[in-house]
Description:
Elements: E1 7-8, H1 9-17, H2 19-27, H3 38-51, E2 59-60, H4 67-79, E3 84-92, E4 95-105, E5 108-114, H5 122-137, E6 142-150, H6 162-165, E7 166-170, H7 172-176, H8 179-193, H9 216-219, H10 236-244, H11 250-255, H12 257-260, H13 264-275, E8 280-281, H14 283-290, E9 297-305, E10 321-330, E11 336-342, H15 350-360, E12 366-369, H16 372-385, H17 390-398, E13 400-402, H18 405-408, E14 412-413, H19 423-430, H20 448-456, H21 463-494
Parallel strand pairs: 1-4, 2-3, 5-6, 9-12, 12-13
Antiparallel strand pairs: 3-4, 4-5, 6-7, 8-14, 9-10, 10-11
Amino acid sequence: MSNITDLSKSRYCKGIQCPKMLWLDAYKPQEAEDILPESVLANGTLVGDLARSYFGEYSLVDFSFDKTEMVNKTNELMQSGAENIAEAAFEHDGLYCAVDILHKNGNGWDIIEVKSSTEIHPIYIEDMAFQYYLLTLCGLYIKNVFNMHLNKYYVRHGELDLKKLFVLEDCTDNVRQKFNKVESNISAIRSYVSVSDEPTRDIDTYCENPYECAYRKYCGRHLPEHSVFDIAGMQTRTKYKHYHNGIISYEDVLANEKKLKLNAKQKIQIESTLYGLPDKIDVYEIKKFLDTLTYPVYHLDFETFQQPVPQFDDVRPFQQIPFQYSLHIEQQDGSLEHKEFLGKEGTDPRRALAEQLVRDIPTGACSLAFNMSFERTVIKNLAEQFPDLSEQLMDIHDNMHDLMIPFKDASYYSEAMQGSYSIKYVLPALYPNDPELDYHNLNGIHNGSEASNAFATMTDYAPEEIAEIRNNLLKYCGLDTYAMVKVLRKLREAVGD
């Protein structure tokens, strides 16, 4: 788009969420943070490309920076009798869109908007309404408008079945009802972004919904170092409500403690930050937790990845597929043995992982995870998938303990945890400035999202690069369970055990 008031469907949706995003895109793009994971874009491309074949053969309008060229190509295809046109381009009076699939329907056309989600969100309706409005202005007779998204109940067996993989939801009535509103929205957005002086617009829920805004930090630069938005366990809309009522700083929050109905953990978080309180250590509760453990303790952590389009049999869209685990086996005397599994890239790793897991963890052993609900879910799914291993897997499931409990219950709390009981906050709070436990010192992979993406895309790399990625994955997952070992030791030290 060449003019600041020109609108594509993505810019229109941004303007619906918050027009200041468009203003900042034009005048202060350097203030934007990179918040969109590459995997999201990759998923969208993969699903969009696959969906084009839903109706059979199709013609593709190749991307060009010259939008007029794409519009002309679309017109040629329509005139030549093409029944399915992917990326069909339309332009009118500074408005532009490329329709994911334009499907011929008798004497008219259907708009098919493809999304890599498993359900429809309100912003999708706005997106489709813009397309319907523009194509109508261009003289097309639009019969129906559909949202095509992934079927979360589809389980792959053999070749992909596009008719079952995708769900077509008729959104025509909702879209048509917005026709006049689209026109007024366009006018309002254009008026907003055409002002050269930075508009005044306070932060609100639209900073995070339906998408996190890249300018959230910039627009919230007036907030104090510790604000109501940092309080753990409080709903987002509640935080904005308090903010707009003038309850912003931690001091404001404490002054309105009864009104806000803070729970005990939230109060501890705020008072520890304001007054520098010593670590809270509830010896009785921590001892009670430790007494549930028996040695040797099997510290376990899984890494999983998701496929929007299932590549393996017996997999649903976005199902968590375990591909890796780390296991630190800790004896009573503190000695450690480390075992690990990392699946072969490009293959379904579940069977091999499950077989090794039941070899590595004997029946009746005390396993330990940090936030065990995740590990238990992975194990339960494996047990359902592989009935011959079910008894052994469910034994691991049933004998698992959760290292997160003392921190989730605030039996152990430090100001440095910032109200969180995630291990990524707990670990540096217990072992500050310890390079051995610093995830930032790892190469290539520093968190679960990076690990998932690395395994999912590993086949795209050369053999020497794959070897390096695999090594990085092993180091990352190994640190996860070694961190658990260190956290457990700190709990024992805290109670003099």
